[in-house]
Amino acid sequence: MLDVPLDYQNQTSDAPRAYIALMKYPATDPKDYKGMILLNPGGPGGSGVQFAATMGPIWSDATETIGPIGPNFDIIGFDPRGVGFSIPSANCTYSLDLPIGKRFDQPNGPILDMEGFARELPEIEKLLRSAKLCEKAIGGSDGAGQYMSTATVARDIVSITDAFAATSDGQKVKNPKLTNYLGISYGSFLGQTFASMFPERVGRFLLSGVVDPDDIVTGLPMRHLQSLDETFAGFFVYCSLAEDGRCDYARGDSPRDIFLRFENILARLDINKARANKWKNVTLIEEVLYTMKKTIFDAAYLPREMFPKVAEGLLSLEKAMNNRTPFEELEDYRNRLVAFKFPQEWYNGNMCSDQNGIMRNVTVQEIWPLVSTLQHQSYIGGDVYLANWFACLGWSIVPKEVYQGPFGGPTETPILFVGNSWDPVTPIYNALKGGNIFTQAGVLTVNEPGHSVWNPCATKKIRAYFKEGTMPGSDNFCIGTEPGQGVFNTTLKVRLEENEAWREIVQRLRELRLKSWKAHT
């Protein structure tokens, strides 16, 4: 634990203190010791302590295509304010029993139009009540709620770095006052905030799965899902190439054939038709469609690991439809995809603080354009992603400090941004923007689907950046055709974007998206 001021604006002797939980995976080759690298796994609300414990042994591997950090650094995970083991904890235990607190885990049905939106109003009312209760639980002057903004966490990073600089290990490093950092997803927003607030303290900064900071502080998801449908389109190409039964949904079919089967599932889950004909099972159809989309959305984060589960789920659903049996099987497969979950207030406390109350008093009429924007971005994720943006409705805890820009400018050390060509929630445009607004920053593109997914090519270049400070320069594109590195252990013969079937499927998903959007606006 690191003892820090609870409120950096009040550092009197009798002021309350906070304690930041830290976990170190030590350098395994201390002969060429290079200091420490701080990690943030994203969320917001992810535990850096758990992340370091899990990834430390892998990321410190001496093999340059396996370990992006290598054996010469201490890998340090920390739990941000209110999260995990840090004190005080943002723990509103009552809220975990509310349905709205489980939106990321359980299908509550899609919000496809104003009628569907109206059905969610009781859940929104519960969310508003839980926000008030949470204010009482953690919103006081000695609670976590007022001090969970990214600006406060950035100041904690300065404190962690200063504490390291004062140690014997810190004295071994040329400039221990510079922070080395690896941030993923929300961690990239934390990194950009830190670099904008403390540019003189930036060491080697690797930001992956890059978030647009302006989207965060304005509360408007202008581009979040732009690449999600393209990410999913890759499933059909990889599945068609899979050998030895690795893709359960394949039958020796072409990508187009597999997609036609998927479209047949969609045709039988036509909510508009079910409503028009007043089918008795319209609610079941809504829930099955939502569950299928949620399964695909979750899997798109880690296609190599999770697309095989999508194949299982689609096959199960197809069989259930053909046999006219219930659809419970799909729920079983969806549950396998649920990643580590953290309390909703860990997410809310940080995200809502950074928005600085933008969503606090928003009306239903004002929310609807946001719903429409997300639906227009993605057929798969437009409905699913809404839970993220409902989270801050009614959140009434006012943060002590918020940094809302400007973002960018010169830094002591150039930042390296990394993005996937097809990322379900942080499109490559965000990394390119980061490379443009920060002076001398570099951008590395990983030409594969997934959220902050690296291949051996990318891992090697990240390792060179951390070890020697070497930027990719013009060699900044990892092509994604390495043997056996594709989903289902496949090998692409041509780049995904050059695959004619992939382009056709992307276009078809766009048509589905437009059709759905027009039907519900």
UniProtKB/TrEMBL annotation:
Pfam family, one: Abhydrolase_4
Xref: PANTHER family: 2-SUCCINYL-6-HYDROXY-2,4-CYCLOHEXADIENE-1-CARBOXYLATE SYNTHASE, AB HYDROLASE-1 DOMAIN-CONTAINING PROTEIN-RELATED
Entry-linked InterPro entries: AB_hydrolase_1, AB_hydrolase_fold, Pept_S33_TAP-like_C, Serine_prot/Carboxylest_S33
Similarity comment: family membership: Belongs to the peptidase S33 family.
Keyword annotations from UniProtKB, A to Z: Hydrolase
Glycosyltransferase in keyword set: no
Gene3D superfamilies attached to this UniProt entry: alpha/beta hydrolase
Organism the protein comes from: Hymenoscyphus albidus
Domain AB hydrolase-1, chain residue ranges per copy: 37-233
GO terms, molecular function: hydrolase activity
Name used for this protein in its record: Peptidase S33 tripeptidyl aminopeptidase-like C-terminal domain-containing protein
